[in-house]
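Aim 2 progress. For GWxTD domain-containing protein, the working sequence is reproduced below.
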Amino acid sequence: MKNKQKLLLALLISVFFASFLSSSSTSVKKSDPWKKWLNEVHLIVTKAEKSVFYSLKTEEDKKRFQEQFWKARDPKPETPYNEYKIEFYRRLKHADTQLEGPNSAMGRIYILLGEPFEKKNYSGYGDVVDCELWIYRADGRPGLPPFMHLLFYRPRNFGNYRQFHPGVHNALDVISPGYSVGRASQLKAYQIIKKSLPQLAQATVSIIPGEGDPRRGQFLTSSGSAFAQIHTLPEREVERNYLKNFTAFTGIVDVTYSAKEIGGKGLISISENKGFTFLNYSIMPDDIDFRRIAENIHTADITINLRIEDLEGRTIHQQERNIHLEYDDIKKKTEIEERKLAFKDFAPIVEGEYNVSITFSNKTKEGYFVHKERISINGDTVPVLVGFKIKELESDNFMPFSTEGKKVLADPRLIFNKAESLEGLIFSEQKPTIHLRNIVDTNNTFEIKDIVKQENLFVFRQPLMDIKSGNYFLSIKNDKGEIYKKIISVISFHVEKPLDYERSEAASSELNYIFVIAQEYLNKGEFDTAIEYFNKLPENLWNSTTLPVIARAYYANKDYEKAVELLEKENVVKNYSVLLFLANSSLELKRKQKAAEYFEMLRKYGDTAELNNVLGALYHSLGEREKAKVYWERAEKLEKSKKKNLNNNKEK
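Predicted structure tokens for this construct:
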């Protein structure tokens, strides 16, 4: 009995954390079944198939396409079942219920490659963070190396598992945060891991066993190529002849894939606007590789991901922006290639010490780069915006690098032509001092005098015509010390400014920012403050979208009664994560019968041994021993089946 109760407690804790991190990305409106289907198959549908599908106009054509889509993948057409389709949906369900979702790092690989030949879990080892190594054999699949070691890790033992990319990541990312390595190099970290976990150490160098030498740097090219081969398997493994029976797709071309790191520049600045503190960013890739899809039509699909983490590795805020660029004007495309594009965005942010990363990814040609900075926002922080021009605004919209009535135009490279001015805004009540100090000639220091108070900030301008070309420290100080320091370049020749690609939000977005700020406090673990901000929202914004998040704050603050009250509202969709919170809250309130009902409802998402064990323990505590026995026997049967499948996979 005691063992069963311990098992129940352990399982409930793990279930809670699973719900805490779960994603609702797979939920799709029932009114759009085709969108739901495309979301399901998005990892295996080819670009040509997707293009053809979008060209179809009638339901009949779409149904016929769906039938042919699965038929083209059927390995044994002579049988009454489509083994590929059955296996695909099995993998999809497993990824959704056991691997943090089909769009997670593990979920994507599992759907594409299936069950690994072997798994090795390194959770609980003192020297490294939680890691899992999946070993695959190519088994004749086109383009794959004979063996692959795919590593997943939880950065600093927080959050979901991420894919480890040798060359982008290194052994330092795997060392446990509790293991003191001082200023250890990548090589030192590799040697530490290798002493006790040689196979794991090798996986940090290359996904191909035996390749790579940590003393000569990481093998990004070969690992990147292997990853590209994995993610493009659907393009190479399916016969697309059936597409000719549908709408012609003139202009669609086969694509080649490469995993490459491109260069770029990034700039992060802090501002204030209408009582909110904002993080602003500008990110500019050295190159945007377009694809021609038809005569004079060029496209690129861009993803920009902003992640803000605290120093313990917890994700405080994350936002992703997907951008589809399409130009039918060759002059415009040429202008972009020559002048470059700077993508700008912003997000509200609360006080704290953060590591910020902005990842630019060109999905069209698999190019990427990452800009990282550490920032500090506290009571002594003075927001500063610096650029080459201050523009007066007529709109009261929120936009990057702006405040009420003013916007700073900034080049993320921080280069200035001599014909321009250095201009900026300082959000301070006290007049600062501003200096330009030449990096090479430290005696060449210039003080900027043109500083004017305008309402709640200072505006400064400095023409650069008489400033000697070179690199300068731009230093801004107040009576507490230096509040801003960046390196700028004054150049003698003319360089065109990049084109800006940015978004703005209406002034009415203030309520959205309150919700985001509340979420950030929740992610930081400041539950009282999070609830305080949630309660600033009007009643109409306590809706089906926001209530599960608000309930999470009350649950974390141990107000289980309020969490249940919110989640049991009729307009809240009872999805996987909501049911988990309801089940756990009911347990905390000692409403075991209600908890059992919710755990039973969870079985529709996957009849797992873990859930059956929980239900067995619950019914046993309720005195329904026969019912408990049924669930425990079911759990035992599922565990045996799982072990049998794993052994069969190892024998293959």
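The chain has a mean pLDDT of 84. This observation will guide construct design in the next reporting period.
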